[in-house]
Amino acid sequence: MSHTLLQTPLVGWHESHGGRMVDFAGWRMPVQYASIVDEHLATRRAAGMFDVSHMGRLAIEGPGSAGWLESLLTRGVSGMPVGRCRYTLVTDESRILDDALVAREPDAADGTPRMSMVVNASNRARVVEWLKSRLPSAGVTLVDRTFDTAMIAVQGPLAMEIVGGLCPAADSLRIEALKNYQATSASVAGTPAAVSRTGYTGEDGVEVIVPAAAAAAVWEAIHAAGAPRGLMACGLGARDTLRLEAGMPLYGHELREDSDAFSLGLGLAINLEGRTFPGSGRFAAFRDRPAGRVRVGLTLDSKRSAREGHPVVQGDREVGVVTSGSFSPTLERAVAMAMVDRDVAAQGTAVDVLVRDARQAATVTPLPFYRRSHTEQKSPENIPWQQR
């Protein structure tokens, strides 16, 4: 059955600039413009800009908003200061519904507390349905702002300078002062925006949320300011290779409904002491009974990519499965993430990956595969996430 794809406010720009458009989670999105490798390397060397408006953006307001989210999310959020962002999981009693980024917004003019969430496009509808089913009768409102706004990610060594140069001096200084996983309001290219120092590429940069009606003008301004310095518009293809090099899990690949988040290295996103949330007992059991398989990186001895579902073997024994894999433009070799048995998870362990039934030699490698120079030291607040 055919269906009409959802479109971001920037779809016209993508089409007019050669974007190869695909169906992604029900949205018409660019997978690339010319070369995924060129877009990837531009982000590592200068800057890349990504339309991530397909991701869900939710506004939660009211005197009970922080306490209500505290009762539903795996991460404690009730004590978050204004401007703080935090990675979390959204769960029901038996499943991980999504991973998300939650932020404490400035209070409304009348003093009403405000929170926001960004969720994956593929899970937005069910997360909204789940949250609405748990709304209290008073004190909290939930509004899906996905179609009223747009979201632009600008990532790379020059990203902060490029976006800051489009802001008034005071706003530029405020953006520059942001630490990882912090957010502020600013005027970007003359448009009121929410700016967060977050991303999904392993690079420094910001994600900018603006009204949908202003999205094209803001995108054009960023592109015009950055292109002479090496910035490129990037599609979903480069976004995926960048996040793979950065060792970031993707919902539907590494992270699934039934995942043990501790085995994925996401234990810091789960606060169990002194609090409960849907499924907290299940996560406590995971914590207390380590899983047989854990997430690792694999570097292959060739450029031939492993893909999701390819078996990982040692001798005649199957010891794991690939969850994500691709050619790494930065390392110039194939890399993958995989869930493997604990006894083969040590750094340097030699394994093989069956790529179309052909054995490809691989080595267990620490994650991330790529770490940018002069990376800000991350605190437990700052766990890489989705934007999926």
Characteristic terms for this protein:
single chain, 388 residues, alpha+beta, Gyrase A, domain 2, Alpha-Beta Plaits, Elongation Factor Tu (Ef-tu), domain 3, 3 domains, 6-stranded mixed beta sheet, 6-stranded antiparallel beta barrel
Amount of beta strand: 25-35%
The helix-strand sequence is EHEEHEEHEEEHEEHHEEEHEHHEEEEEE
Question: What would CATH call the homologous superfamily of the largest domain?
Answer: Probable tRNA modification gtpase trme, domain 1
Taking all Cα atoms into account, the compactness measure Rg is: 21 Å
What's the total number of strands? 20
Which CATH first-tier class of the largest domain would you pick? Answer: Alpha Beta
| CATH architect. name of the largest domain | 2-Layer Sandwich
Mean pLDDT across all amino acids? 95
Strands ordered across the widest β-sheet: 11-12-13-10-4-14
Explain what you see:
This protein is of the alpha+beta class and about 400 residues long. The chain folds into three domains: about 5-50 and about 150-245, Gyrase A, domain 2; about 55-145 and about 250-290, Aminomethyltransferase beta-barrel domains (Alpha-Beta Plaits); about 290-365, Beta Barrel (Elongation Factor Tu (Ef-tu), domain 3). The protein is about 20% helix and about 30% strand. The protein contains nine helices and 20 strands. It has a six-stranded mixed beta sheet. The protein has a six-stranded antiparallel β-barrel with strand order 15-18-17-16-19-20. The protein is globular and about 65 Å long. Mean pLDDT is about 95; it is low at about 375-388.
